[in-house]
Amino acid sequence: MRIMKRLLLSNPISEFAKHILTRIVFCAAIISCSFQSLQSQDRAIRIKAPEVVRVGERVQVTYTINDKANEIVFSGQTPSCLKLIGKPMQTLRRMKSTSNVKDSMVFETTYTYNMMAINEGECKIPSVTITTQGDVDVLSNSISLSVLPKYGKEVTDKLISDGYCATLTFSATEVYPKEPIIAELRVFSTSVLESLTHLELPAFNDFLVWQLSSREVKVDKERIGDVEFLSALIGKMVLIPLRPGNLNVEKSVLSLTVSTPLEKISKNPFDTFFDPAPIETIMLQTDPRVIHVKDFPPNIPPGFSNTVGRSLTVMNFLNRPEFARNEPFAIEVEVIGNANLKFLSPPELKLPPQIELIDIEIYDHSKVDKDGVHGSKGFSYIVKAKTSGPFEIPGTAFSFFNLETEEYQTVSSDPISLYVFEGDPDVCASKFSSQVQSEDKRREVNSAQMFVLDVSGSMLAKDFSPNRQSAVFASLMKCLEQSVSDIGIVVFSEIPYLLHPVSMDKETVIDSLKNFTFKYLGHGSSSGMAIIMAVDELVKSNAKNKSIVLVTDGKSNSGSIRENLAVEVARHFDIPVNIIGVGSDAENAPYTIKTAFGEQETEIAIGINDQELSHLALSSNGEYFRVTNSDELVEAIDYLSTQRSKKSVGSFKPVYTKSDLQSILELMNQEVAKKTRQEISYGQR
Fold it and tell me: Could you tell me if 485 and 634 lie in one domain?
């Protein structure tokens, strides 16, 4: 336009020409303004924020614009009820758009603000202006949210009426499958809390559970109006719902000892010394809750990774660009972001027909903490090229469910190029044979069986001779000599332990039973974790028929993985779980305890629930046997260990994948490592 103006001023042209040029300049200005207006209109800011929070809770507000952006600015001050925590985090997301005939790339920029709710009341967060890389300013709407008191009215009412209260709260009660939920168990008391003597958490049957809090209970003194009280965080955990539907969370039961009411605490320490307050035991329980898990929307896209989250990026890379023909090399794929990566299966890698996939290795660097699940997960695709020449590996793409937009989203990486040259065939073949074992060379196995043996303290009861545990070990060693299956052994108490992996060598399996000595397996019974360990061993086997035999004298009462979840996972891997319940017909069984005065004889109750164990076995198409003496025990083990084949558990759509199993195994391994360290530290005291 400046050039046109100079032409009008400098060149002697007709009035008609000047009129025409003036109209052109005017139209150009209109078009320019209109273009900038259209640019702004094409871009929109999407806001995600909670509607209601409580004092002390973290508030996360995200602003997403459908373009690359340079900066974000608030149009006013943040409200006094919220406090900003640091600067906003900016993420750029690249996606493939198929709105046109030809695919194209589109971009989204997200700014995430972390805030803390510090005062109750109605808060109005001012609008923001986001400047795109094209210097276009886009204005958002303002948003409002309510900040409620730190604790609800039910807590205040119970403190006033009873003086005590327990709550189990959730960060969300309406979620999608595998969306993390933060759960907190708290106790409130108007008297001094002395100790926690008993804690029974809900079964969480339809969830995976990660414990976050430490062994030490954190106690804070707080006040609501005129009521002064103590707040104790008993437990904090991350729950991962595994299926859609209304999932029931049963009540938690706690037993605590308390002493002096806070209002009667004397400032004179000698008063407490000479006149201590009596210790009182109280029982508390939380209200049952329901978590509504919504099903995913229909029209699931191909390549859906069964992963949910808020942001994901994927990258492909090679450690070098050239390789010899028949030389094994790795194509690395890494997925990074705020999502439940533990359930992410290996994305499909589209290889040219001249490149052969040999194996896939998985490494998981995601972590679970108070912010949910985030980090990275990598997949190493071991491949080899059968011919020489240049190749291009297309970008890796997969779909996940975006919790912010509540839509499926596909992310992809850039393609990678490589060159394969003619190498020494003997050297390459040697490398291949030393690094990878071909599937067709593996030994064909008809059946594999894992025995899962309870070695908790109650298995030393003497209603079997000399006790239950010895009778089980002796019966199993006797029957294994006739078994036609490959055999593995898992023993468990509070902690599961792989005594022997699946093997065709029966002598070494029997030797492992003969040489079994006490290990740091804790106190209690965690048959759920032991079954999962057995499932993992059987999944590695190439046997045509696989089964588990659980030998126990009671119900699982420990571990984050419950029996019914473990059995359901086994069922979805086509692995029946057979159960043998061990215990006499009497109400009690003789038992020897060690005291400071030597061994003393006593009795323990026989706690087998035949109906529950039978239901567990049948739910995986297994069988249940109740044995009351050593002869029946031998018959049951002999019957199960000599079965030639097992029928399939039925036709159904699988819910669990190997990636799901790896997630459950990681949870189990973390708990085993934690409890093992605790047992060792106790033993050293």
Answer: yes
One domain, residues 281 and 365: no
pLDDT over 50 at 677, yes or no:
no
Indicate the pairing of strand 58-65 with strand 104-117: antiparallel
Show Cβ contacts of residue 598 under 8 Å, excluding neighbours closer than 6 positions: none
Dist. CA 75–CA 140, nearest whole Å: 10
Verify that 451 and 365 share a domain, yes or no.
no
DSSP for 171-226 reads S-SEE-TT--EEEEEEEEESEEEEEEEEEE----TTEEEEE-S-SSPEEEEEEETT
Residue in this structure with the two tokens 């976050």, named with its chain if needed: 212
Q: Do the beta carbons of residue 74 and residue 87 sit within 8 Å? A: no
Are 322 and 418 in contact by the 8 Å Cβ rule? The answer is: yes
**In this structure, is residue 357 part of a structural domain?**
yes
Lowest mean pLDDT among 28-42, 119-133, 419-433: 28-42
Above 70 in pLDDT, residue 102?
no
* Statement to judge: residues 546 and 589 lie in one domain: yes
Domain span at residue 619?
Answer: 447-684
For the chain, the helix, strand and coil percentages under 3-state DSSP, each to the nearest 5:
25, 40, 35
Which sign, positive or negative, has the C-alpha torsion 570, 571, 577, 581?
positive
Q: Which residue has the tokens 């919790």?
A: 403
* Same-domain pairing of 253 and 367: no
The pLDDT score that the predictor gives to residue 40 is 45
DSSP state of 627: E
Q: Which of 148, 167, 189 is the last residue of a domain?
A: 148
Q: Distance between CA atoms of 445 and 442, rounded to whole angstroms?
A: 9
Q: What does the pLDDT look like over 159-217, one tens digit per residue?
A: 777 888 888 988 888 999 888 888 989 898 888 888 888 888 887 878 888 777 555 66
Q: Same domain for 610 and 544?
A: yes
Question: What pLDDT sits at residue 247?
Answer: 92
pLDDT at 476: 92
299 within domain boundaries? no
| Whether residue 213 is found in the same domain as residue 308 | no
Residues 642 and 655 in one domain: yes
Average pLDDT over residues 246-272: 74
